[in-house]
Specification:
The complex is a heterodimer of chains A (99) and B (246).
Chain A lengths: L3 H23 L8 H18 L1 H4 L4 H16 L2 H19 L1
Chain B lengths: L2 H10 L2 H33 L4 H10 L3 H9 L7 H12 L1 H9 L8 H9 L3 H16 L8 H29 L10 H13 L3 H20 L4 H17 L4
The chains are: A mainly alpha (99), B mainly alpha (246).
Amino acid sequence: MIDPATLFTIVLMAGVTYLTRIGGYVVLRNRTLSARATAVMEAAPGCVLISVIAPDFVSKNPADLAALAITVLAATRLPMLPTVLIGVGAAGLLRHFMA
Amino acid sequence: MSISQATLSQEAGDRSGSEFRRGIMSCTPVLLGTIPYALVLGAQATQKGLRVVELSAMTGLNFAGGSEFAAIQLWTSPPHILLIVAITFLVNSRHLLMGAALAPFLRHLPRRKVFPALFFMCDESWALGLADARQRASDGIGPAFSLRYYMGAALAMYLAWVAFTTLGAMLGPVLGNVEPYGFDMAFPAVFLVLMRGMWKGFAAARPWLVSLVVAALVYLFVPGAWYVAAGALSGLIAAYVLAGDA
C-alpha cells in the first residue's frame, strides 16, 4: 500500500509539474518575456540542483572531497554512464584507501 | 496490428503510423542514455524507504527526472511536503519556457489534443518535436508540427522512464546498502552531468555559484533542510540582478 503522506506529496509534485508543462502554452504563448525573466527561468534548474548537492562540497571527509573533484572533472567531459561509474568508483576506492 | 493502429491507417493512410515510428526511432539514442540514471533513481528511492509502487507512481505521474532526483535526495519519512513541492516547481520551471517556444507550432491543434500531449513533454521529446517542426517548416511541409512524430518520441521516453525506474526500485533491495562502496556519489554525478547539459558559459552560470556558496554556508550553520531553499532562492535573485548587465 501507498503511505498517505507519500501519495499526497507525489500528487502535488505531479500537479505543479503539469502546471509548468501547460503554463507556457496557456499563459506565455502570446507574450514576450523580459530578458530578466528568461534569465531567471533559465538559471533556476541549475541553482536548485547545485543547492541540493551543496553539502557534498563542504564534506569534512578528504576522501569524499577528492572523489567529488574527480566526479566534477568527469562530468565536464563524459556522458552520463561513465561519469556515474567514475564517481562511484572514485568514492568507493578513496574512502577505502584514505580512511 | 493493434486496433488503434488500424483506425489510424484507415483515417490517414500509411503515413500516420510511420510518423509515430519515426518519432520512436529519433528518440532511441537519448532514450538509451537515460536508462542508467533511471536505474540509479529507482535504486536510491528504495534506500530512502520508498516502496516500488510509490516510486512508480512518482515517475509515472510526475515524469520529470531532475525534480525526481531532487525529491529523492531530500526524501525523509514523513516527507517535507512543502519543500519537495517547491523544489519540484523550481526544477521544472523551465517547462514554462519550453511550452511557450512550442506554442506557435500547436495552433492548428485543438486543446483536447494539446493538453494530453503536453503531459508527456520532457526535455527530449520537446527538443525533437521542435527541431522537427522547424525542419518541416523550412521544407515547406504543413502543418510543421507533427503530433504523431512528437507522441512517438514522448511515449517511448515515458514508457522507458517508468519501466527502468521501477526496475531500479526492484533491484535496490537486492543490492542492499551500497553507501560504503561510494554509490551515493551517483547523485552528484547525475546532477553535474545534467548541469553540463544546461551550461551556457561562465556568465550564465554565475547564479549557480551563488547558490552553491549560500547553500553550503546555510548547510554548515543552520540545522534542517533550509540550505536548499536558501541556495535556490539566492541563485534566482543573483540571476535577476546579473541579467541587468547582460
